[in-house]
Amino acid sequence: MDTIAQKTPATLPWNAWSTLAPAVAAREVQTRVAALAPALRSAALAWLRPEHELALDLAAKSARDPLHGIPYFLKDLFDLGGSPTRAGSTFLNEVRGTPTTDSTIVRRLRALGASCAGKTQLVEFASGLTGENPHFGDCPHPQFPDRLTGGSSSGSAAFVAAGVIPLAIGTDTGGSIRVPAAWCGLYGFRLTPTQDLIADAIPLAPTMDTAGWFTGTNEGMLATWQALVGPASPSANLRGCYLPLSALLPTADAVTDQACTAAAKKICPAADAATQAELLAAWRDAVDAYLTIGMSEAYLVHRDWLAPYREHYDPVIWQRFSAAAHYSAEQIKAAHATLAGVRHAFEKYFSVYDFLILPAVPCAAPSKADCTPELRRTILTLTAPASLGGLPVLSLPVSLPSGLTAGLQVILPRATSSVVPWLLQPE
């Protein structure tokens, strides 16, 4: 099978990166980026750090640092001093100027020993779930070029899935870690809103924006989680349950439903009828509430740019943000009431259980033709509850018979949950 990343060297194990000499590791990153097909490179790469600069940065780190020797790519919503932050747009740097300082997450990763190798493209202003961008190209799946990676953290997921890099930083408002992780067969972690690692990123909807990251292995996910989040809060006799895809989407893809159910069954039992009914009732209006809150907040971020830069926006994104100007106070109030109800339901659930498993996507990675408004809404049916809940989520890959992938979202009451190392420890 021809693949869009077929000339890329074999993926290096997580620990192998830390054993490479700095100059060798920097050359390895350059070689792997250069080996990508032009369409993938254009759609995924926003900026590549010069090889000698990356080598010097890697050499400056201590072997005692927990992420020593790990190069990573950064979603272009975060600032890297001296490099433009464009957020998938063509005009943001014009109105904002090139940043002179690094975002908090960059400084944190530097202190942990990781080195930023470059920045990745995304859906414009992070408002999308399928990896489409008319300015730089829709981001193709590294192994299935007729399909897309998912978004909005499309470039970050693509680089990890293509074996270019062991770690990439993304964000998740409505599923932008969870969806591309599932479609690209990756591990992902979504943090929580308003914390310091997301506070200085270009916002989409601050009530629900979160930072996160992708790795290709459970080993890499556990190492990054331990460095950025751990240690785990103490817990014993961990309890959880899962809701099948068919419970949330009665017309869901049967193959995806079966694969996700089989994977979830290995971790925990299905939710009992009462628990399932209570959660589904609380989530009944979750998609509409997510869209109302999310787009009304996005409008406030963009309102001074929408008129003067209309021709520079992706028309779909411009319409999405502009339409939110017409939401009534009553609509926004009702959406926040739904958010409060979702959070109350989660609080009740987590008074009994330690985690909840849902499917992350309704189907395998889509083609461009499949990327419809209906697909967006279907995805949000699965992802909006945790987004409204403001909860951290561990994403686990699920293999499909076709060779494509789906994923599970393990919703947690706190980022330090001991469920994370329990699920990620090698068997």
Task: Explain how this protein is built.
This protein is an alpha/beta fold. It has a single domain, classed as Amidase signature (AS) domain (Amidase signature (AS) enzymes), CATH 3.90.1300. The chain has 18 helices and ten strands. It has helices at residues 14-19, 22-34, 38-44, 51-59, 92-96, 104-111, 154-161, 178-184, 196-199, 218-228, 245-248, 254-265, 273-282, 286-302, 315-323, 329-350, 373-389, 419-424, and strands at residues 45-48, 71-75, 115-120, 167-172, 187-190, 210-215, 240-242, 355-359, 393-399, 405-411. It has a ten-stranded mixed β-sheet with strand order 1-3-2-4-6-5-9-10-8-7, sandwiched between helices. The chain starts with 13 loop residues before the first helix and ends with a helix. Residues 1-6 have low confidence and may be disordered.
According to CATH, what is the class?
Alpha Beta
Percent range of helical residues: 40-55%
Q: Helical region count?
A: 18
Counting structural domains, the number is 1
What's the number of extended β-strand segments? Answer: 10
Q: What percent strand?
A: 5-15%
